[in-house]
Amino acid sequence: MSDPLPILEKLYSAVIADVLDTLDHRHQTLSPSLRAMTSARHLCGRIFTAKAEAVDTIPAEPYKLEMAGIDAMQTGDVLVVDAGNHLDCAFWGELLSTACIAKGVRGAVMSTCTRDLWALEKLKFPVFAIGTTPADSKGRIDVTAIGQPITIDGVKIKNGDYLLGDADGVVIIPAEALDETLRLAQEKVTGENAVRADLANGMPVTEAFTKHGIL
């Protein structure tokens, strides 16, 4: 598939999760605690990974790998950060979002906190996180690896996978299952539209399920 993003932009996390279940990828959704912190909350793109770990001193070169990761990302990427559900500081904010927007990066997803929501709202840059705090990350958390496989909430994630996040949460699409997932998701959306029309016209739920096999 040349560019999956125009298709992903029209889909939603629940239909992707349902399709991945049928493909036996049943552990692809991140925890409900990781959710949209911004009103811009529909996010899809190609994953670029980073791992961040807690520190108790300021590194000699703070933010070094974090900045390198942002510089390495390309148009269509989404930054996904495994930070071990760290709540003591904000890994993300306005300035990094501004840099990402200029590069065509589509959003950020992290198992830690963000800040500067007043500015992020103006930027319309989707940020998914587990909380907010004004505390800076310097001397509290630091990136230790970029572009390497990570695991968040038991979901294995690697560079080149895709994700879709929205008001329901975030689902990770393995690269090797992308084409089939998108094909089946489009088919399921068409089926759901038919079910919706029948239900709106008063068809009993049991009859609609028998007819379409979708609920």
Order of helices and strands: HHEEHEEHEEHEEEEEEEHH
* Tally of separate domains: 1
- Please count the helical segments: 7
Instruction: Give the CATH class.
Output: Alpha Beta
Could you name the CATH topology? Glucose Oxidase, domain 1
- The low-confidence runs, each spanning 5 or more residues with pLDDT under 50, are none
What topology does this entry show?
Elements: H1 5-8, H2 13-22, E1 35-36, E2 43-54, H3 64-72, E3 77-82, E4 90-92, H4 94-103, E5 107-110, E6 113-114, H5 117-123, E7 127-129, E8 131-132, E9 141-146, E10 150-152, E11 155-157, E12 162-166, E13 169-173, H6 178-200, H7 205-212
Parallel strand pairs: 2-3, 3-5, 4-6, 5-7, 6-8
Antiparallel strand pairs: 1-7, 2-9, 2-12, 10-11, 12-13
Helix pairs in contact: 2-6, 6-7
Description:
The chain is an alpha/beta fold and 215 residues long. The chain has a single domain (24-174), classed as Ribonuclease E inhibitor RraA/RraA-like (Glucose Oxidase, domain 1), CATH 3.50.30. Helix content is 33%, strand content 26%. It is built from seven helices and 13 strands. It has helices at residues 5-8, 13-22, 64-72, 94-103, 117-123, 178-200, 205-212; strands at residues 35-36, 43-54, 77-82, 90-92, 107-110, 113-114, 127-129, 131-132, 141-146, 150-152, 155-157, 162-166, 169-173. The strands form three sheets. Strands 1, 2, 3, 5, 7, 9, 12 and 13 form an eight-stranded mixed β-sheet that branches. Strands 4-6-8 form a three-stranded parallel β-sheet. A two-stranded antiparallel sheet has the order 10-11. Helix 2 packs across helix 6 (178-200) and helix 6 (178-200) packs antiparallel against helix 7.
